[in-house]
Amino acid sequence: MLKSFFKLEENNTTVKTEVIAGITTFMTMAYILAVNPSLLGNEFGSNMDATAVLIATCLASFVGTMAMALLANYPFALAPGMGLNAYFSFTVCGAMGYSWQIALMAVFIEGLIFIVLSLTNVREAIFDAIPAMLKKGVSAGIGLFIAFIGLQGAHIVVANDSTLVSYVDFAGNWHTQGICAVLALIGLLVTAVLYIKGIKGSILVGIVVTWVLGMLAQATGIYTVDVENGFYSLYPSMALTDFSAIGLTFGQCFKADFSGVSIFNFIVILLSFLFVDMFDTIGTLIGVSSKAGMLDKDDKLPRIKPALLADAIATSVGAVFGTSTTTTFVESSAGVGEGARTGLASVVTGILFLLAIFFAPIFTAIPGFATAPALIFVGFLMVSAILNVDFEDAAEAVPAYLCMIAMPLVYSISEGIAIGVISYVIINIVCGKSKKITPLMYVLAILFVCKYIFL
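The chain above was modelled as a monomer; its predicted structure follows.
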């Protein structure tokens, strides 16, 4: 039944491969179960109930990922997006001073708008309008981006006042950052060796091995728990979740008090969510599907409409549950790196998110340095897409290059796409190659420029 429904043979995959890949994707995304409640529950931000946000995160991820599996049959997983949750908490609720109920209503309406755009082919047209070479740049850029996220999660790369980023001081912070960085590097080597040897599940094994080594380091005193600075116990907890907490956020978006809310500011908030979510999703779909070889001969993604619709549905549903914008996660590339090619992998990931409601403390114990090897290695797999860019044609290659380097440096997939689109249009117009620019690319370039000016 599984082989027939998900067309496993047509996609040259097996049940075992899809299951392992689905677990791998979940393991690389599990950090959202800890991060999202932390951000939305921050007292200086939206100050929502952390347990309620945790449950909402699990439910929204389950609904979105299952929708992707059943509607589009793609191995893409969804969860509340990083960056969007920070904007939700610290900008909309913190700096602007709006209630989290109003922020949830903005997310809910954004999702409805996306549903309409998905049904009317607008988002599909945007995806198809992006030139093939620029899509390769997006894929490579996402590879660098998630590798950078992994390097940060492992504490290999840390903040530096002089150079913005720097290498970790192993000796000065040995029992926290130092040992985490070393364990991540060991996990990366394990992952690489197993992958080169053709061992199935190499990325997942790398995560587990790194986590186990971390627990051994804590048991022997090499790793020291320092909660104040964000270094928590690596041992999983068997505590259960307080399910009644979901009542604190469920449906609260419909109870938002708009008295004293500026219509203009609300529209700005709505458009900000809309822009970032749209192009983060499109960028992720381009990057992951390109690496998985899912694009057709015209560099279009078959069944993109149901994929985009699943993303839109998840956003509105997530707002009702009580979480920020739900979007397609770039960490899906970890599962693709393990061989995922169908929605069966997403079913596995979705079920694990649902089970995480019951055993959330176990999954939230997976440290960032344990998932870092997966992200860094998948970054290597994805960055190879740049080899398919025609560097003899600078008008095509330069925008792809700018898009690629922008994503990790400005820490945003959508901003990388914006820079790529704007530079592509300007360079080709000035160089007398405007005939190959589609009308929609002009529209996108103008919209991105307007976003920088007005938003």
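The longest helix spans residues 263-291.
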